[in-house]
Amino acid sequence: AQKVTQAQTEISVVEKEDVTLDCVYETRDTTYYLFWYKQPPSGELVFLIRRNSFDEQNEISGRYSWNFQKSTSSFNFTITASQVVDSAVYFCALSERRSSASKIIFGSGTRLSIRP
Amino acid sequence: EAEVAQSPRYKITEKSQAVAFWCDPISGHATLYWYRQILGQGPELLVQFQDESVVDDSQLPKDRFSAERLKGVDSTLKIQPAELGDSAMYLCASSILQGGSYNEQFFGPGTRLTVL
C-alpha cells in the first residue's frame, strides 16, 4: 500500500533561517512520482515539484531545494533564507505509475510559520 | 492560462440538507478527480472519472455522496443528506490523458463546505 508520512505537524522559525520539511514514503512499485505542494491560507494547492523514481538528482530552484534518497524512501524539502511569504501548509505526495492517470496520495502536511 | 473552475467557493449548509458542487476542468482534459480535504489533513481522493466513466470511487461514501460527469466535461458532486463530518474543502483536479508518461494534475481553488 502507498503511504506518505510527514512527521512534522508544525514548524515555526524566524525569518531568514533555513528550514527542512521531512517526507517519508512507502510504495511497492518501482516506478512512481513524488511531489511537493504548497497550500497558502487561501486554500488553493500550488504545485512545487515532481520527481520520478528514476531520477535521484537533487534539485534546486531559487531558495527551494529537494533531496530525494531512495535508500531511505525520503524526499525532503529545504527552504533557504526563509521569508514570511513561505508561511503555508506544505504537502508531500506520491503517485504510483500504474496508468497515466493515477491518483495522488498526500501526506498529512506540515504547517510552516515564518516569524518576522 | 487555462484553469480548473469550481463553484461555489464557499458553502454553508445545515445538517440533513442537500448540497452540490460544480467543477469545470481544463478544456481537453479527459481525467477528472474529486478530492476531500478535512481540516488538518491532506486531500484524499473521492472519485476519479475518465471521460464520463467512473474509474475509482472506492473512497466515496456512496450512501450519501454521488458524482456525475454526464457529457465527459464538467462534473457535479452531491451530498444528500449532509452531516457535520462532511465539513471540509472539496478540491477538483483534471489532467490530460496521454499514454506513456505522467500527466500533471491541475487543481481548482476548491469549495469550502461548512455543515452546521
Helix and strand topology:
The complex is a heterodimer of chains A (116) and B (116).
Chain A: E1 3-5, E2 10-14, E3 19-21, E4 24-26, E5 32-39, E6 46-52, E7 59-61, E8 64-69, E9 74-79, E10 88-96, E11 105-106, E12 110-115
Parallel strand pairs in A: 2-12
Antiparallel strand pairs in A: 1-4, 3-9, 5-6, 5-10, 7-8, 8-9, 10-11, 10-12
Chain B: E1 5-7, E2 10-13, E3 19-24, E4 31-37, E5 44-50, E6 53-56, E7 65-68, E8 75-79, E9 88-95, E10 106-107, E11 111-115
Parallel strand pairs in B: 2-11
Antiparallel strand pairs in B: 1-3, 3-8, 4-5, 4-9, 5-6, 7-8, 9-10, 9-11
Plain-language structure description:
The complex is a heterodimer of chains A (116) and B (116). Helix content of chain A is 0%, strand content 53%. The mean pLDDT of chain A is 92. Chain A contains no helices and 12 strands. In chain A, strand 5 and strand 6 form a beta hairpin. Chain A has 116 residues and is mainly β. In chain A, the strands form 3 sheets. In chain A, strands 2, 5, 6, 10, 11 and 12 form a 6-stranded mixed beta sheet that branches. Chain A has a 4-stranded antiparallel beta sheet with strand order 3-9-8-7, with no helix packed on it. Chain A is globular, with a radius of gyration of 14 Å. Chain B is 0% helix and 47% strand. The mean pLDDT of chain B is 92. With 116 residues, chain B is an all-beta fold. Chain B contains no helices and 11 strands. In chain B, the strands form 2 sheets. In chain B, strands 2, 4, 5, 6, 9, 10 and 11 form a 7-stranded mixed beta sheet that branches. A 4-stranded antiparallel beta sheet of chain B has the order 1-3-8-7, with no helix packed on it.
Broad shape of chain A: globular
Give the structural class of chain A: mainly beta
Helix content of chain A: under 10%
Count of DSSP E strands of chain A?
12
Count of DSSP strands of chain B: 11
The low-confidence parts of chain B are: none
Strand content of chain A: over 45%
Which percent band covers the strand fraction of chain B? over 45%
Q: Total number of helical segments of chain B?
A: 0
The number of helical segments of chain A is 0
Largest pleated sheet of chain A: 6 strands, mixed
